[in-house]
Amino acid sequence: MTTPAGWYDDGSGNRRWWDGQQWTEHVVTGRPAPSDESTASEPTVQEPTASERAPEAPVPAAPITPPDAAEPAPFVPPYTLAGQMPAPAATTSPAGMTYPAYGGYPAASWPVAPSPQPATGVPVVGIIGLVAVVIGVVCACFPVIAIAGWALLAVGFVMSLISLFLRGRKWPGITGLVVAVIGAVLAAAVSFLVLATSSIAENGDSPFAAPGDRPSSEGDSSTGREDPSTIEGAEMVPFEELEVGDCLPLVEYTDDDVIFDLPVVPCEQPHTDEIYLIFDVEDGEFPGDDALGVTASDGCLAAFESYVGVSYDVSELDYYYYQPTKSSWNHASDRTVQCILFSYEEVTGTLKGANY
């Protein structure tokens, strides 16, 4: 609470003007300090105007003598004279900046805007993008759902890229982009291998086989390396459509030939070969060409006598077979062996029950 401006005893028996903050040079001498009883009877002294506060010839104040110890202490306003004001005290603001105090007022603490703190959260977009990328890479490696996998991979890549421009941790977006790039290369390589192997297995729309140990032809009945499809009356039949009793013309194949179909001619037409047994070998891992050849030969030999009428040892006929290759075994699930009778001379009609 502050003392209002007015005339007050300054302790020397004179009255001095108090402007509400400090003593001024305006002094009224020779008049006792007003008491409570006399204040009411004396005329009210009006606050001097600006010109009155600065008269051309101010009356100098009488020297102030220390009051007697027995006299009551003079009125002391709540503010000291300017020469007796304490030194400004420094105040530290919350931001670490100090501001001195002036005019007897406490130091001001100016509000300082705090520096923005880095965001510590993880953007949801980045997490969703990373999950979409991982699922997309896995799905893209399977041909059946490859299209859905590539779509998820693209969506996850875009979401991971967007998350880098959002506030929060960046590791989900960066991880998503890296996984998307590496996964796309991996999925493309897997798709290429699957398509390459599938095209080999599906070539000719049928399983393919290699001929077994076929007996050498004798005489002039061989057509040599003639294209089987050009043989008169021949129809090219895939292996899975061959049947027991189909008659085949003589066609020479080498051990390096991979065959997808065989020429079938009417049995009334001169021919040398005839299918007499078709059976499947035991499933499992590919046993190898040699082991599979032994299995095929044993199966064909066991059925020879029942079809021809005489045992193989006394018959004039021979036999050979077609067996699966490693590629047809692994990629086309081919397990079928075709056993074929062979006559060294052209015959007409079926060889079933020939008895020779």
User: What string, H for helix and E for strand, traces the elements in order?
Assistant: EEEHHEEHHHEEEEEHEHE
Q: What's the average pLDDT?
A: 76
Shape: rod-shaped
Number of helices: 7
Keywords:
356 residues, alpha+beta, 5-stranded antiparallel β-sheet, 3-stranded antiparallel β-sheet
Question: Summed up, what is this model?
Answer:
With 356 residues, this protein is an alpha+beta fold. It has seven helices and twelve strands.
Structure overview:
- It contains 7 helices and 12 strands.
- With 356 residues, the protein is α+β, with helices and mostly antiparallel strands.
- A hairpin with a 4-residue loop joins strand 2 (15-18) and strand 3 (23-28).
- Helix 3 (124-140) runs antiparallel to helix 4 (146-163), helix 3 packs parallel to helix 5 and helix 4 (146-163) packs antiparallel against helix 5.
- The longest helix is centred in the middle third of the chain and has 31 residues, at 171-201.
- The chain starts with 5 loop residues before the first strand and ends in a 9-residue tail after the last strand.
- 23% of the residues are buried.
Topology of helices and strands:
Elements: E1 6-9, E2 15-18, E3 23-28, H1 36-41, H2 50-53, E4 90-92, E5 98-100, H3 124-140, H4 146-163, H5 171-201, E6 209-211, E7 235-238, E8 247-248, E9 261-264, E10 271-280, H6 289-308, E11 318-324, H7 326-331, E12 336-347
Helix pairs in contact: 3-4, 3-5, 4-5
